[in-house]
Each structure stands twice: as C-alpha cells, then as structure tokens.
Backbone:
C-alpha cells in the first residue's frame, strides 16, 4: 500500500483517523460518549486508538479516585485531630472555669474574714475608747464599768461578737 491514498473514501478514513488520533492524545477522564458503542465499520487503527483513549481515561479515573480517597482519608484524619484538639480545649476551659469558681469562693471567704476582722477591730477600738473614758471617772461605777469593759474585751477576743454599747 502507498503512503498517499488514491481513493476519496481512503482520504476520509485518513482524516477520521487523524481526528481520532488528536482525540486519543487527549489525556484525562473522558466522557463515555466519546467512545463508539459499536466497533463494526472501524479500522483496526481506529479501534486501537479508541482502546488507548479508553485505557487512558480509565487510568486517569483510577488515579483521580485514588487521590479522592487519599484526600478523604486526610480530611477525616484532620477532622479527628481538630475534634480532639477542640475536646482538649473544652476540657481545659472546664478546668479553668472550675479553678476560677474555686478562686472566687476563696476570695469571698477571705473577704468575709476581712470584714469580720474589721468588725472585731472596730469593736475593740470602741472598747478601748470606752475603757479610756471609764478610767477618767472615779468611784464605784467607774470600777464596775471598767470590769464590764474588760469582760466584753475578753468575749470579743474569744470570738464572740457581743457588743453592749
């Protein structure tokens, strides 16, 4: 057979073959409609081109499927890491909240103790002023008043909060 076709039907077949060759060279996933349903009437070269194109499409599809599976797995792993990190942050937040509540309770207790101490200190100062005032007076009532103030001071220092004005 010669390199140059002499027949117009052969020219058509050569141009169809060139078109198919251009389509076959296209790599990647191709739609199924690019491939003929029936191979009758096709030359062996055209069948081979379609087979190569179908094979290339299948290889690309499998590669894409593999990439999709890998990316899905990576996404799942990243999601799990994110959720684990989020859970650890939630646990830390709960612990910090508990510590904050404990610190607040301790601060309130200390505040109450300071208020009680301040109250005792004011009562003690008042008793000392009353004692100084009673020392200025003379007589039986002054001694009785001083004795009563000393008893009040003892009761206050023991933790009682009785204040007889």
Residues:
């Amino acid at each position: 057979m010669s390199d140059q076709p002499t027949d117009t039907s052969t020219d058509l077949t050569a141009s169809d073959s060139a078109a198919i060759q251009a389509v076959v060279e296209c790599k990647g996933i191709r739609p199924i409609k690019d491939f003929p349903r029936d191979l009758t009437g096709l030359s062996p070269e055209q069948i081979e081109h379609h087979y190569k194109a179908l094979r290339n499409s299948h290889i690309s599809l499998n590669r894409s499927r593999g990439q999709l599976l890998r990316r899905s797995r990576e996404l799942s792993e990243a999601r799990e890491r994110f959720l684990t990190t989020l859970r650890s942050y939630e646990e830390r937040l709960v612990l910090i909240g508990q510590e904050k509540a404990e610190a607040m309770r301790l601060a309130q207790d200390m505040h109450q103790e300071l208020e009680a101490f301040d109250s005792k200190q004011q009562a003690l100062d008042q008793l000392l002023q009353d004692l100084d005032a009673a020392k200025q007076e003379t007589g039986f009532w002054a001694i009785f008043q001083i004795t009563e103030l000393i008893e009040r001071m003892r009761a206050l220092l023991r933790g009682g909060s009785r204040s007889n004005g």
Notes: The two ends are 135 Å apart (CA to CA). Helices lie at 8-25, 44-136, 140-158. Residues 1-12 have pLDDT under 50 and may be disordered. The chain has three helices and no strands.
